[in-house]
From TrEMBL:
This is 4-hydroxybenzoate octaprenyltransferase. It comes from Roseibium alexandrii (strain DSM 17067 / NCIMB 14079 / DFL-11). It is found in: Cell inner membrane; Membrane. It is an enzyme of class 2 (transferase). The keyword Transmembrane applies. Pfam families: UbiA.
Length: 366
């Protein structure tokens, strides 16, 4: 609106929570009287301090769960951050959580407890959501140049312009602090072990540029919970959680190979490496080997923890589910690959229920 004293008009432009005043005469701020320049400087400063909340919602990410509450109920200004953390794709934190809960249940069996520690399970749940979000945010910051060139990922918040890299870095710190707060609730050995997990987390985003096995490094990071659940109970590690961890790595390579088949054409164009491109038409054979190794290693871990029939039944039923994935997979059907990838949430439940039921049965008949 024009100023009341009849001086050249200034128009107010609302930008997020910040406000900028623009001279209607089109003159640069430096050519205006000092008082007017101070207005521009002061209001621009306000906008700089509110940039974290100044986002742009350009719509859901391509492979998100359709009509998720993030995209339908969350305030528009917060949606880009929720998408950075992948809240509308919860399968990621489930896959990070399962090794934690498996290990907690296996530790309960070994310790003679009738149920995994509920407090530990809650902490692992919160930690998995926070650190999966932090990991995805970090990955998006590192991969923004690649994501912009890949059909499935160019709608992610940073390449789509929903948030800036600076905003993403602030959000990364917030999520990491939540994860740290969770970690500090455990014993000192678990805290040190949790801090060590940052090494594979930090290097994973760069592996797709230099090796055909980035899924291996994802396995190092995503399966770390197999060590944490046991350490939280016993304050140390033994062979059982180590075998569970290695089995988790094999499982992760398998399901993420399926996931990577969605992007293999774009990955080839931009030079991104993956086991999907490495295995190619031999993917089914590779999955047989990887999933068989995972099942065998899980069974050995259960045996070392003195598990009973319920745990091995869970492993057997889980192996049947993995076999189903192998039989029906069509590596050229991106939609099916995504659905098979997401079905590993079911696999996680089957294994966990088997381990938890075994702990309960052992506790009843102890």
């Amino acid at each position: 609106m024009p100023l009341a004293n009849g001086s050249p008009e200034l128009y107010c432009v609302n930008c997020g929570l910040g406000v900028i005043f623009v001279c209607a005469a089109g003159k640069a701020a430096g050519n205006q009287p000092r008082a007017r320049r101070n207005i521009v400087t002061r209001e621009t400063s306000i906008r700089d301090h509110t940039m974290f909340f100044s986002t742009r919602d350009t719509g859901p990410v391509a492979d998100a769960v359709k009509k998720h509450w993030v995209d339908t109920r969350l305030p528009a200004g917060l949606r880009p951050y929720a998408r950075l953390a992948r809240w509308e794709r919860p399968i990621g934190w489930w896959l990070l959580l399962w090794p934690c809960w498996w290990s907690a249940a296996l530790a309960a069996i070994a310790a003679g407890n009738s149920w995994p520690n509920p407090w530990h399970m809650l902490l692992f749940l919160i930690g998995a959501i926070a650190m999966r979000g932090a990991g995805c945010t970090y990955n998006d910051i590192v991969d923004v140049d690649i994501d912009a060139q890949v059909e499935r990922t160019r709608s992610r918040p940073i390449p789509a312009g929903q948030v800036s890299k600076r905003q993403a870095k602030i959000f990364l710190v917030v999520q990491a602090l939540v994860g740290l707060l969770v970690l500090l609730q455990f014993n000192s050995f678990s805290i040190a072990l949790g801090i060590a997990s940052l090494i594979p987390v930090a290097i994973y985003p760069f592996m797709k540029r230099i090796t055909n096995w980035p899924q291996l490094f994802l396995g190092f990071a995503f399966s770390w919970g197999a060590l944490m659940g046991w350490a939280a109970v016993f304050g140390d590690l033994s062979l059982a959680p180590i075998l569970l961890y290695i089995g988790g790595i094999c499982w992760t390579i398998g399901y993420d190979t399926i996931y990577a088949h969605q992007d293999k054409e774009d990955d080839a164009l931009v030079g991104v490496k993956s086991t999907a491109r490495l295995f190619g038409d031999r993917t089914r054979l590779a999955l047989i080997v990887l999933y068989a190794l995972a099942s065998i290693l899980f069974a050995l871990a259960a045996a070392l923890a003195d598990a009973g029939p319920a745990a091995f039944l869970g492993i057997l039923l889980g192996a049947i589910h993995l076999g189903w994935q192998i039989v029906i997979i069509d590596i050229d059907d991106g939609d099916q690959c995504l659905q098979l990838f997401r079905s590993n949430k079911i696999y996680g439940w089957v294994l966990f229920i088997g381990f938890a039921a075994d702990a309960m049965i052992s506790g009843i008949f102890a």
